[in-house]
């Protein structure tokens, strides 16, 4: 058996340049390309469904070569989870931003709920709104570990609604107990992705007004 012997270095090894090598244009654009890939995947997963969408479809929609998605994600499953995670993190950030706007804390609970409902409709139905709908209807495709991780983000998002719903319940303005109200409100809002059609004339503001009339008692 031949022993493993490390090769000797040549007497005049080439000098290494100091510091990190310069990034290529593609490497510098990685962040943008990743976002373009996520947006393309979200759009296709929502329109065609996860099972019917191929990585070749996604690459073409993102204006990439067919193998390029695997540079960013090891599989289509990993890309699906990234789409859902991106959607929930973005939704969390937008709801937190709404709750931290100047004057929000001084609003009546009903007006605070109106803000939350309005932002939720924007997340579901506004520009670039493919991410969360994919999560709503394709999460069954995730393995248990990723499903659990996503569940933690969903729980964090829903917890932002609880103080407002509790305040409304204490004032006698909520039509249902807090726990059931949270489930029913979010369930009703989420179902809008199935039937909402902006071409039929309804605006997100009109949807918000209608939702508030359903959920709260008349003052």
Describe this protein's structure.
There is one protein chain. With about 220 residues, the protein is mostly helical. It contains eleven helices and no strands. α2 packs across α3 and α9 (about 160-170) crosses α10 (about 180-195). The longest helix has 24 residues, at about 75-100.
Features:
single chain, disordered N terminus, Tetracycline Repressor, domain 2, 219 residues, mainly alpha, 11 helices, 0% strand
Report the helical percentage: 55-70%
Instruction: Give a short account of the largest sheet.
Output: none
Give unreliable regions as ranges: 1-14, 19-28
Structural class: mainly alpha
| Residue-averaged pLDDT | 85
Number of helical segments?
Answer: 11
User: Cα-atom Rg, whole angstroms?
Assistant: 24 Å
**H/E series:** HHHHHHHHHHH
Outline, from the CA principal axes? elongated
CATH architecture of the domain at 76-215: Orthogonal Bundle
Q: Mind telling me the CATH superfamily name of the domain at 76-215?
A: Tetracycline Repressor, domain 2
Which CATH class of the domain at 76-215?
Answer: Mainly Alpha
What fold name goes in the CATH topology slot of the domain at 76-215? Answer: Tetracycline Repressor, domain 2
Distance N terminus to C terminus?
90 Å
State which percent range the strand residues make up.
Answer: under 5%
Total DSSP E strands? 0
